[in-house]
Amino acid sequence: MLRKSRRVLLGLLAVLVLALLALIGFTAGRPPARPALPNPNGYDDFIKARTAVTGGFGAVQVPDYDKLAAFVSANAEALHLIRLGLSRPCAKPMDSEPKLADLLPLLAAEGRLREMDNRPGDAARSYTDAIRLGNEVSRGGEPLDRLLGMAFESVGHQGLVKLAPMLGGRDAHVVLTELEAVDAARVSWPDVLWAQRRSEIRRMLRHPIAWARTQRKVREGVEEGIGTQHKLVMAKERLIAVELALRLCQVEQGRAPAHLRDLVPKHLSKVPEDPFSGRAVIYRPQGTNWLLYSIGPDGVDDGGRPAGRGWPLKGDILFDSSW
User: What strand order describes the sheet that includes 282-286?
Assistant: First the structure.
């Protein structure tokens, strides 16, 4: 009995020592102080929008025009509050856990309704707003908040890929400008990790043993899973922007440009970087068409062979990738 008690005591002591060492490591590289929340804070408008939501995902999943129109009309106030929030600086309050996933169907439903009304430009703006919303709900948040943000952005990706061939010059230019603005003000992955680090310090001080048991597994999941998806979102949005710029150039000049740098500065402010290579996204003219892609998470240029659905992804990420 004495030996067993001693082993348990030594085990607890080892865990506490590990937690103490981790705490020293954390405090040695303490995350920068969190900036003051903006006032007014657009995130507060998102919370208000969530409380105003009526209905749910079912209205979006059923392609019935009348039901879709009724859903969008019933949620006019929530949509207004989302756009009010997007017009203001945003930051997630610490320890705030609002269920913003309830906002997911709103812009998707509005975009789909506008498509059914044959208003592709307005539909594209709904989907672009979904991308903007995804970025802003992530601001100041941890990896799980970023995961939610990427769900919003996925709604925008799917809609814009479908609408790209239908957009006229003015509408394409508006969407392209918005996508570049999102990219310039994107929530960075280091900022997301800093937010997680702040929370980890608090969790470690409150429950050191539970924290030490789960720390390694959580870290691996965040880095390998959510961190990679963050880069995928960046790649996809940059490819959509370049695709729109190429289409605009082709309409104006009757041909695709020889190089992506030919799109700057008229159609692009700069040639987008592939987040997986640190170099420009890959562009290869092919007669009247082109091949445009990111090398993807595997870091290998597969000549434009699309990545499959399995994980980890193997292959390249194209403009219309279905991941």
Answer: 282-286, 289-294, 317-318
Contact between 241 and 282 under an 8 Å Cβ cutoff? The reply is: no
Residue 124 CB neighbour total at 10 angstroms: 27
Q: Which residues contact 4 (CB under 8 A, 6 or more apart)?
A: none
pLDDT tens digits, residue range 8-29?
A: 444 544 444 444 444 444 444 5
List all residues 6 or more positions away from 161 whose beta carbon is below 8 Å from its beta carbon: 240, 319, 320
d(CA 220, CA 143): 12
pLDDT tens by residue, 139-160: 999 898 999 999 999 999 999 9
| Predicted TM-score (pTM) of this structure | 0.85
Phi, psi of 36 (to 5 degrees): -60, 145
CA pair distance 214, 209, nearest whole angstrom: 9
Q: Residue 106: which of 137, 141, 135, 77 has the closest Cα?
A: 77
